[in-house]
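Before surveying the methods themselves, we first show a specimen of the format, giving the amino acid sequence and backbone structure tokens:

:::
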Amino acid sequence: MRIIRRLDPFQTYLNNENILVGIETYFSSNRDKRPREFTQSKNQYSPKSPPPSSSEMAVESVLYKVFIGEEKGVFVSDDQEFFGNPFKNKAPTIISHKNRKALTFLNKYSVFDPLSNNENKGVMLVSVQFQPVIYPREASGNLKWLLLSMKNAIIGILEDSKDKFDVLNFLNVGPKSGSSVKFLHSQTYIFQQKPRTRGHFRNAFYQAFNQNPKCVACTIVDQRKIETIYGESVNYETLILNETSNFISYFAYCPLRLGQIRIIPKHHLKNVTEISNEMFLELGLLIEESDLTIHNFGMKLGFRLKDRSIVFRESYSENQDFHLLVDVLPFWPLGSVELLDSINSYSITPEHIKLFLREHKLSMKRND
């Protein structure tokens, strides 16, 4: 039984005690031999009563009803333009929904107040596309419109505000990932705090970036391999899934979740606002492909990897350089040692997942 230990080069740094800090993942085939005493519940649908389609479920979502005007909303942007700044109470509540391919509006259930008089204020934004689907793999190339609307909202708010805001972008798909609605959407948090705070998880990416003599992502793009600050050589040729004119997608070398796929731009971009409108088509397709790849892998192995988190690792600070990363993460329960430390363990390496997909002729690319 061979045990492999890996550290994420994008998130590993040396602290003041000369200890490497970051995500740590172990791989051992022995993990597959554990007894399974819990079983999954039976399908609630019978052959006589098949489950509704994704689009049938999505059109019942409150987010879709906001998009088509059946529910009220405070609108910030669409795929073409910025409407108004919610921090200045200038975002419209009534717009024409015709000819719009995506919309961004305020989350009614925000934990932030955009009009707060104190030093802690913010907005939670929701971006949706016109097509009623649940999963990215069903978006048929239309995810780009959602991303464009999200970008327009961020640029408009940051350019129209004197305040320095933190920005967090992500998509959570399915109930196990934290989503409460059956409609594909992204979420954007734009907020400020006094005193400013930053979580350990995000900070580790910045610390690792600052300690590396060269940008890890740029080195992967140029050389397809890296030498880490902790003396390990990593060959990314064995991990790459797809490459376009502007992006590379690959199985994460040290996955936070089994089957994690990471997407990096070939150019050194700090955040999504620096992505050109033309590049969003490529990025959207790669996210859709990655979702499909994880779905196919999970179905073949018997894992229910339907739910998804798609997170944007980025920087909006003038004082913090960074290289944008997009992580497509399958749902995997958080528990046991992960609640004590940043340690994961899986039975199969990302290299073996790629080989498994090829051997079983499972698609890693879109057909259209």
Summary: The radius of gyration is 21 Å. The chain is about 20% helix and 25% strand. Residues 39-47 have pLDDT under 50 and may be disordered. Helices lie at 54-58, 62-67, 143-160, 200-211, 216-223, 279-301, 350-359.
